[in-house]
Design a protein that fits this description.
Belongs to the UPF0718 family. By secondary structure, the protein is mostly helical. The protein is 67% helix and 0% strand. The chain has one domain (6-150, 210-345). Helix 3 (55-66) runs parallel beside helix 5, helix 12 packs parallel to helix 14 and helix 14 (290-302) packs antiparallel against helix 16. The model is unreliable at 150-168 and 198-206 (pLDDT under 50).
Length: 346
C-alpha cells in the first residue's frame, strides 16, 4: 500500500511546502477579508441574512458558499467570521458543506471533464443534501456544541457589568476632576471620549482601522497554526506515500464496496478540486467506476484531515462527528446515484 522511496519523500516534502505556504497565505488573506466585511457589515445584518428562523437564510448561505472558490480548509476563516457575527448555526453549516463542494472551480472542472449531465446531477445532489443537513443539525440543536467565538469587547465608553463605577465615561463622585471624559482646564486634549481636532480632520482612520484588521487576521492565524501544520504534514505524507494505482485497483466498477471505499479514501488524500478532478479523469481511464469517482471527489473536496483539525478549534467532537457523517453520507449517496445513472450519463 505504501511506497517508500526517495521520489516519494521528495513528492511528500514538496507537497508539504506547497500546502503550508498556500494555506497560510490563504488563511491570512481570507481572515483579513472576513474582518473587513465584519467592520463594514453590522452583526445584526449578518444575523438577519443568515438567520436559521427563515428558510431564506439557508438559501443565502448556500448561495454564498457556491460563489466562494474555497477549498475545505480555506473555508474555516469565513466560517469563523460568520459564527462571530452571530449567523444562524444551521445556515452556517450549510455554507460549510456547500463552499468546497459546489464552488465555481469544482463546477467548471466537472463540466469540462465529465460533461453537463454529470455536472447537473452533482450540483443538485450536493445542494439538496447540504441544505437538508444544515436544517437537521439546527433542529437537533447541535449549535450548543460550538465553542465560544465571541469577539472581545474593548470599547472605551462601554461600562463593565461587574464594575460600573470604573466606566471611563462616567465621572467618579469622589474625584470628578479625574474623569477621563471631562477635559481639565490644563489639558483638554486628553479627554478620552472627546475627539481631538486633528482626529476629526481625518475620519478615514477612525472608520477603517487597517492595522487592527491585520492584527486580528494574524491573531487568528497564530491560533490555528499548530493545527494547520499538523494537518498539512498528514496530508503531504498521504499524498507522497500512497500510490494512485492502489486506489484505482480497489475502487473498480466490479467491486461492490468501491463507492464507500472511495468516499473514505478521499478524505485523507486532501486534494484540492484543481488536482482531484483531473486525477479522477485519470482514474476513469484506469477502470474506476463513475460512482466511485464521484464519491472520491466529494469525499476529497468536502473534507480533509487538515480541515477536521482546524474545525476542532471551533467545534466540539459532536459536531466533528456529524460533519464527517454528512460528508461521507453525501459521497456514498451520490456515488450510488451516479452508478445507477451511468447508462443515462454516458
Amino acid at each position: 500500500m505504501f511506497s517508500f522511496s526517495m521520489a516519494s519523500l521528495q513528492s511528500a516534502a514538496a507537497m508539504f511546502v506547497f500546502l503550508a505556504l498556500e494555506l497560510s497565505l490563504l488563511f491570512i488573506v481570507i481572515s483579513f477579508a472576513v474582518a473587513l466585511i465584519q467592520h463594514k457589515l453590522p452583526a445584526g445584518k449578518v444575523q438577519s441574512l443568515l438567520s436559521s428562523k427563515k428558510g431564506s437564510g439557508y438559501l443565502t448561505a448556500a448561495a454564498i458558499g457556491s460563489v466562494t472558490p474555497f477549498c475545505s480548509c480555506s473555508t474555516i476563516p469565513m466560517l469563523n467570521g460568520l459564527l462571530r457575527a452571530g449567523a444562524g448555526f444551521g445556515p452556517t453549516m450549510t455554507f460549510l458543506f456547500v463552499s468546497p463542494l459546489l464552488n465555481p472551480i469544482v463546477v467548471g472542472l466537472l463540466w469540462l471533464t465529465f460533461g453537463w449531465k454529470v455536472t447537473l446531477v452533482y450540483m443538485v445532489a450536493t445542494l439538496l443534501i447540504s441544505l437538508l443537513a444544515g436544517v437537521l443539525l439546527e433542529r437537533l440543536n447541535f449549535g450548543r456544541y460550538v465553542k465560544q467565538t465571541a469577539p472581545k469587547s474593548g470599547a472605551c465608553c462601554t461600562a463593565k457589568p461587574v464594575e460600573p463605577k470604573t466606566a471611563c465615561c462616567v465621572p467618579k463622585q469622589v474625584e470628578p476632576k479625574a474623569s477621563c471624559c471631562t477635559p481639565t482646564p490644563v489639558e483638554p486634549k486628553t479627554a478620552c471620549c472627546t475627539p481631538k481636532p486633528a482626529q476629526a480632520a481625518r475620519p478615514s482612520k477612525e472608520t477603517m482601522p487597517w492595522l487592527q484588521l491585520w492584527r486580528d487576521a494574524l491573531g487568528q492565524f497564530r491560533a490555528v497554526f499548530p493545527y494547520l501544520m499538523l494537518g498539512v504534514a498528514i496530508g503531504a505524507f498521504t499524498y507522497g506515500f500512497i500510490p494512485s494505482e492502489w486506489i484505482a485497483a480497489h475502487t473498480g466498477s466490479d467491486n461492490p464496496l468501491a463507492v464507500p471505499l472511495a468516499a473514505v479514501v478521499g478524505i485523507p488524500l486532501y486534494l484540492r478540486a484543481e488536482t482531484l478532478i483531473p486525477m479522477a479523469s485519470m482514474f476513469a481511464l484506469k477502470g474506476m467506476g463513475l460512482g466511485a469517482l464521484m464519491a472520491l471527489i466529494i469525499g476529497g473536496a468536502g473534507a480533509s484531515l487538515t480541515e477536521l483539525i482546524l474545525l476542532k478549534s471551533l467545534f466540539r467532537k459532536q459536531i466533528l462527528i456529524a460533519f464527517l457523517v454528512v460528508i461521507i453520507g453525501t459521497a456514498i449517496s451520490a456515488g450510488y446515484l451516479f452508478s445507477a445513472l451511468t447508462p443515462w450519463l454516458a
